[in-house]
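At this stage, I needed to go through a protein sequence along with its fold in token form, as given directly below:
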Amino acid sequence: MRYKKPSPQDLRRKNRSAILREIYFNENVSRLEVSNQLGISPATATNVVTELVEKEILVESGLRKSESGRPSTLLKVNPEYASIIGIEVGETYIRAELFDLKFNQLAALEVPLKAIVTSETVVSKLQHIVEEISTASQVTHQELLGIGIGFPGLVDAEKGVSVFTPNWGWRNVSIRSQLSEKINVPIFMENGAKAMAVGELLFGGGRNVSNFVVLLIGTGVGAGIIVDGKLFRGSGNNAGEFGHTIIDIDGPSCRCGSRGCVEAYIGSNGILSRFHKSMELQAEIPLHEQMLEVNNIVNQALEGDAFAKKIVDETVQYLGVCVANIVNLVNPGLVLIGGWSGLLLGTHYLPEIEKVVQNYALKESFEKTRISLCELGHDSVAKGAAGVVLEHFFEGDIAL
């Protein structure tokens, strides 16, 4: 590929992105401090800041006295400039959260989903949720910077398409185009684990960490990988499908169509399947009841129930081996465990998980890796989806 010299517009966009990020995460700074921190000329910093102040994206936040000369005017992002909606489409629910531009939560809403749904049903529910949460907060569509959606399965983020959603049997369903017909707001789609990784990078445990992995464990299992401070997507945006790496080629069937996948062992279906087998039960637990059932098993294990403890101990062992594989493969500085089941197991068994990781990971890699829980909690996908919108805002993909 031939080198293309950046145009003045390219350089201005790059400088605006860098300045906006700098003031967003380090507010109450002066124009000169921004210039020095980013290594750009004071004139360039002043020109960009003037534009952003005129658009009311930035506001002056006070003065700082100087030992010599005039006091410095301090700057910060205006939280009232716009709002952002982040949505998690789970396999049993949809959760939406409304934020101002500085990520103060203004409202939240959650609705259940049936085990198998049509794309029309999901799009209709998404539209209803956006309208309801906006109306309740008195936010118009014109005041929305964008809507971010964290979606299960394989996602084409550029086209806004659900490439493959195993639980619903979807392939190549264009969610964004359907929703855009109903809502005239910029819409961005991302795989749920990747959205979670973006959220943790911006606002959670991954702040100031260049290389880390977020492991989402719930009904399914996925991972978001951050390399050099950026989301690693792979050649088709499918990097991070860790739930469908293989533990045992002769293992239990996975809903992706393969056998012995990680998800078949530490996803909720795998946990419940082993528990029912040990209890000689045949009943299949509906998806919307699995969260409660897994929680019950963990509670029984903590109370000393032998059957439950056996299943939880097995799950901790499998989870630890999975994290060890991530440590050996990616060599991250941090592994964050999240998702409703991951947080449940990690809250009670993190030391045991770490011990298993230590037993199976390379010593040199393990010593460089910290293992912790996602800081954004149970709504980390919704927050991460809103973070995806914020990233597009920083990069200039949304008109100011």
